[in-house]
């Protein structure tokens, strides 16, 4: 049986002011995160951290440790999809990270995600195709999808399908084995003409299991949910079609936010900003600090880093920490050839945060005295 399918549903809205909050916000930010990660360079330190994590995760599993040694020794970018189709630590840990939205693990996997993306682009299907995926779903999950017909869905993982329906049927199993779950078959129509940044390809020749006629869709692919019907065998048939990245109602919001991230190579700063916008303040701070540790003491990018770290701390109501970052910013600007106006603005910002810190402390003390 296939693993659960984790999706975000985009509900049509005319209120662009609410387009980056709630359910639609998850849709937007999942797309931004993928765009950012694909353009973020990796380094050996990150790869070693990933290997170290997997060693601890599978320390009592000799088979997986052997797989890990093989991966460490012989991995190459043209083998990314082969490793993904193996039933090994690579597939398990990557899918678990995507399913649980473990952003740090996804971050560590980014170079391998990029390798998979490039392979899918290289082997992009040239003709329209119908593919299938079997799934077990609870009645609540199915009901949620039934209420979402006509909407767009984005998939939070790589989507594995087969061009052969009988293979999908085989994985579905017998209803008697799963009395509390509904048997579902996704029928997906995919036209390569709509592909912009999220490719799909028949990876049979690249897979460890060539006889499964596997067609793989890129992480974050967007589909339109067209229909849901039950057939004579009591199987729910869910019809979907691959969508363009810019076909949905939030295309302008997404385009504007992507523009803010630029078109070239991204940095830890960009990744931190996306997490910041998602409201993941502690995680954003972690990557900003990681970025700072990689910069020289005279790098002008520290100005942005310190200012953003101060703003993040302010949004967390940690005004004392905000003051500390503002002070670092002020000290740095003293050493840099900046205009008098810029230095005055830094002093004002520091004073503003110091005042907030004092008021916050006074209010906290008053609260404890009162109670």
Descriptive labels:
three-stranded antiparallel beta sheet; 371 residues; 14% strand; six-stranded mixed beta sheet; Toxin ADP-ribosyltransferase, Chain A, domain 1; Serine Threonine Protein Phosphatase 5, Tetratricopeptide repeat; alpha+beta; 9 strands
General description of the model:
By secondary structure, the chain is an alpha+beta fold. It has 3 domains: 7-23 and 125-246, Alpha-Beta Complex (Toxin ADP-ribosyltransferase, Chain A, domain 1); 38-121, no CATH class; 251-369, Serine Threonine Protein Phosphatase 5, Tetratricopeptide repeat, CATH 1.25.40.10. It is built from 15 helices and 9 strands. It has helices at 22-38, 44-57, 62-74, 80-85, 89-100, 103-108, 110-122, 139-146, 165-172, 251-260, 268-277, 281-294, 301-315, 319-335, 340-370, and strands at 7-10, 129-137, 152-155, 159-162, 182-190, 200-202, 214-217, 222-230, 236-242. The protein has a 6-stranded mixed beta sheet. Helix 1 (22-38) packs antiparallel against helix 11 (268-277). The longest helix is centred in the C-terminal third of the chain and has 31 residues, at 340-370. It is globular, with a radius of gyration of 24 Å. Mean pLDDT is 83; it is low at 12-23, 340-344, 346-351 and 353-371.
Topology:
Layout: E1 7-10, H1 22-38, H2 44-57, H3 62-74, H4 80-85, H5 89-100, H6 103-108, H7 110-122, E2 129-137, H8 139-146, E3 152-155, E4 159-162, H9 165-172, E5 182-190, E6 200-202, E7 214-217, E8 222-230, E9 236-242, H10 251-260, H11 268-277, H12 281-294, H13 301-315, H14 319-335, H15 340-370
Parallel strand pairs: 5-9
Antiparallel strand pairs: 1-3, 2-5, 3-8, 4-7, 6-7, 8-9
Helix pairs in contact: 1-10, 1-11, 11-12, 12-13, 13-14, 14-15
